[in-house]
Design a protein that fits this description.
There is one protein chain. By secondary structure, the protein is an alpha+beta fold. It has two domains: 213 residues; 133 residues, endopeptidase domain like (from Nostoc punctiforme) (endopeptidase fold (from Nostoc punctiforme)), CATH 3.90.1720.10. The protein is 57% helix and 10% strand. The chain has eight helices and eight strands. A hairpin with a 2-residue loop joins β5 and β6. It is elongated. One of its GO terms (biological process) is proteolysis. This is Cell wall-associated NlpC family hydrolase. It comes from Kutzneria kofuensis.
């Protein structure tokens, strides 16, 4: 767990006592002193960040499943239309074949010998023979068409059945995600409220110390050129901007993922909004091989909850927690649960 409050506690001459919020309670017991209040704010902020990212990830999953369901339904409609057309073709060819079968079973003689015996002259015979040939060709085409339409109708029916199953499965998956979405939203909301309540319990001096702590000094003169360098400068330009959960406004309020999204947007690089998707962008880079502009992610494979940007010299810039501002800290200031690093460009 990262501990962004240790510098504030040191300035106040106190020792941080870690008091964890239990999953069964959205709010810890009332603090007995200023130290407890800071510790509770730290834990509540961590829980807010973690649950908030889980909820954001669940929303994205739900939207993806909804899109899958819509696509499957569109495919189903197209396959059902193809099946309907194939059945219409089958009916048309079947009617032609039925008429031919009916004519032959009722005594119609469609042979060339019949044309010869019934013809009144050689010319009449040729005319009848040509007509019988055309009838035979038509009947052959009707039989071939019927055969093709039967195959086509069978394939279209099978395709429609598969599309129906795909649509049903996609709808079921979307519903499954939706059913759990409200619970995750409620958990994230309670965590957010708990973090705010923990912040409200701080003294005025503690709040002032948090807001004024911009971290370590930094120098942008050595930032490399290129998109990564532009992103680093953009992120450092937000030092002092308040942390706001879900915030997207530079200079007013940002959270960890919106800070790096904003920074790379200034370099013309598009990043997703939440850490669970940002961690999939770019390529892996070892922690020891990081260069300015690389992103560090904290958490676990199933719960990536925090992101920071490496700026060089072992330091990062990030939007920490409730009550704080965007600041520069050592890598260790991002948290003890470092997970992985990604290189977005280059």
């Amino acid at each position: 767990m990262k501990n962004p409050y240790k510098h504030v506690l040191g300035a106040l001459g106190v020792t941080l006592a870690v008091i964890s919020l239990t999953p069964a309670s959205a709010q810890a017991d009332p603090p007995t002193n200023a130290n407890d209040a800071l510790a509770q704010l730290h834990d509540a902020s961590q829980k807010q960040e973690s649950l908030g990212e889980q909820y954001n990830a669940a929303q994205l999953t739900y939207q993806a499943r909804q899109a899958d369901a819509q696509k499957a339904n569109a495919e189903l409609a197209a396959d059902q239309q193809a099946e309907k057309q194939a059945q219409a073709d089958e009916d048309r060819y079947r009617a032609d074949v039925d008429r031919w079968v009916s004519a032959t079973t009722e005594g119609a003689d469609l042979s060339s010998m019949s044309a010869l015996l019934t013809g009144q002259s050689p010319s009449d015979f040729l005319d009848r023979a040509w007509m019988l040939q055309e009838v035979s060709k038509f009947n052959g085409d009707a039989m071939d068409g019927l055969s093709r339409s039967l195959d086509k109708a069978s394939a279209a029916s099978k395709q429609a059945q598969q599309a129906q199953k795909k649509a049903d499965d996609a709808a079921a998956q979307a519903k499954q995600v939706a059913d759990g979405l409200q619970a995750q939203k409620d958990a994230a909301t309670k965590a957010q409220q708990a973090a705010q309540e923990a912040y409200n319990r701080l003294t005025g001096a503690q709040k002032t110390a948090l807001k004024s702590d911009k971290g370590l000094p930094f120098d942008t003169s050595n930032v490399p050129a290129g998109a990564a360098g532009i992103a680093v400068k953009a992120a450092l330009g937000q030092v002092g901007t308040p942390y706001v959960y879900g915030g997207n406004t530079p200079g007013v309020g940002l959270d960890c993922s919106s800070l790096v999204q904003y920074a790379y947007r200034q370099a013309g690089v598009s990043l997703p909004r939440v850490t669970t998707e940002q961690v999939q962008v770019g390529r892996y880079v070892a922690k020891a091989d990081m260069i300015p502009g690389d992103l560090l992610f904290f958490g676990t494979a199933s719960n990536v909850h925090h992101v920071a940007m490496y700026i060089g010299n072992g330091n990062i810039v990030h939007a920490p927690d409730v009550g704080q501002v965007v600041k520069v800290v050592p890598i260790s200031g991002g948290g003890s649960d470092y997970y992985t690093s990604r290189r977005i460009v280059g």
